[in-house]
Design brief:
single chain, alpha/beta, Rossmann fold, UDP N-Acetylglucosamine Acyltransferase, domain 1, 2 domains, eight-stranded mixed β-sheet, six-stranded mixed β-sheet, 3 helices, 25 strands, globular, Trans_hexapeptide_repeat
């Protein structure tokens, strides 16, 4: 039985996660190859010492089992690719760096990417294709939806509910909620870099500043 692993996306996000992916396979004592998938390629090349190919070429590879980590920052594109992989019976691949901390009763769905120095504490539920970049943390009793993205240094404190496709910018801090009244970040909301979120954020809006306020469209 042959296995082939892939990082979907050869831009900055994908190249950063390739090292995490190699750590993952080394930890599991799995000697299989990892390739990049880049739909802009017309022929197989090399990126940072790994073969790189378009999706059709990846499908044509003869491995009996294929696993893919979607290293695309745009969550809507991540979802489209996840649907394509499911249709082609290719499994989502979760990766985490060696120094990630995951505590008790943390349920993380398939396809997650946990970068170095990420901490996931206890009694947490996280949906599929979650990206947590360097030095981010998720505190106790949080519920995070599908295709959520944390930029580096996000501080997600306890009793917070983050809905699908939300984007939390670098260094943002989200105030802790309570068990009976969790703080909610709505679906598709964007929390700007360095924002301090002290109350719930409606779906689809962008908030910035300290305390975070909604940016009104011009």
């Amino acid at each position: 039985m042959t296995k082939l692993y892939a990082i979907y996306g050869a831009s900055g996000c994908g190249r950063s996660l390739m090292a995490v992916a190699r750590q993952q396979l080394a930890r599991e004592q799995e000697g299989a190859e990892i390739v990049f998938i880049d739909d802009a390629l017309t022929e197989i090349g090399m990126v940072n010492g790994h073969r790189a190919m378009n999706y059709q070429a990846f499908l044509n590879e003869t491995a009996s089992e294929k696993y893919v980590q979607i290293a695309i920052a745009n969550s809507r594109v991540r979802e489209k690719i996840a649907n394509r992989l499911e249709a082609d019976a290719i499994q989502l691949w979760s990766i985490m760096a060696d120094n990630v901390t995951v505590m008790d009763e943390a349920l993380i769905a398939e396809g997650s990417a946990l970068s170095p120095f990420v901490t996931i504490t206890s009694n947490i539920k996280i949906g599929k294709c979650f990206h947590a970049n360097l030095y981010s943390y998720v505190e106790h009793d949080c519920v995070i939806g599908d295709f959520v993205t944390f930029a580096p240094g996000v501080k997600c404190n306890g009793n917070i509910h983050i809905h699908d496709h939300a984007y939390i910018g670098a260094g943002a801090m989200i105030k802790q909620g309570t068990p009976d009244q969790p703080l909610v970040i709505g679906e598709g909301a964007v929390v700007g870099m360095g924002a301090v979120v002290t109350k719930s954020v409606p779906a689809g809006v962008t908030v910035v500043g300290n305390p975070a306020r909604i940016v009104q469209p011009k």
